[in-house]
Amino acid sequence: GAVVSQHPSRVICKSGTSVKIECRSLDFQATTMFWYRQFPKQSLMLMATSNEGSKATYEQGVEKDKFLINHASLTLSTLTVTSAHPEDSSFYICSARVRASGSNEQFFGPGTRLTVL
Amino acid sequence: GDSVTQMEGPVTLSEEAFLTINCTYTATGYPSLFWYVQYPGEGLQLLLKATKADDKGSNKGFEATYRKETTSFHLEKGSVQVSDSAVYFCAHRSNNNAGNMLTFGGGTRLMVKP
Q: What is the dihedral of CA B19, B24, B30, B34, to 10 degrees?
């Protein structure tokens, strides 16, 4: 089956630093990747949708200058949390949609736990 | 707006017990409904889905029926195993949403004891 990886799986950083999270589709091409954020015991909240080669579309309330998304190729999207603060601590999950005619299924990565001290 | 509500966990059961995890939704139109499972340390995996009213999704002994009249998609399994211990997410996707956005419930952690 389609596999999506994320790196790193967990990261701890100091307040004010920037953190980059990678999302890769390992055995398929993904025209669209999605970034979600999950707070403890809460739903996955969609942050943004990124299409290869174009700017990401951010959901209402998500700061695009704080959460930089780059989808440079059909197998890689990155999320950079800039000037991270403790309130940015969360579980970040990406998903990728298979590049196939008529396919809508999303495949999810294992998530990245970010802790900002 | 669109939302998904599922029962809070954790749900703790003994092996071979019957499982029900409730899920209700609000949405415009006729969404597709999904159950995802997340095993420890892994990503979300699609467990089953239903795309129209009265459809029953099934996989690995799990079942859920799309009930439009009650806007529900409850997950059931007749006999759970220890290996079913995981977090289960109910989700929907509006069929008129070209962006393919999924709306998730909060997740329900299932713990099955031997």
A: -40
Compute the radius of gyration of chain B from its Cα atoms.
Answer: 14
CB distance A41–B107 less than 8 Å? yes
Quick one: A21 exposed, middle or buried, by C-beta within 10 A (0-12, 13-18, 19+)?
Answer: buried
pLDDT tens column, B21-78: 999 999 888 899 999 998 887 778 899 999 999 999 999 999 999 999 999 999 999 9
Integer angstrom CA distances of residue A82 from A11, A35, A79: 14, 15, 9
Cβ-defined contact of A105 to B46 (cutoff 8 Å):
yes
- Residue-level pLDDT at B34: 96
Distance CA A21, CA B15 (A): 38
Closest chain A residue to B40, measured at CA:
A110
Tell me the three state secondary structure of residue A36: strand
Under a CB-based contact definition with an 8 Å cutoff, are residues B9 and B109 in contact? yes
Inform me whether the C-beta atom of residue B61 falls under 8 Å from chain A C-beta atoms. Answer: no
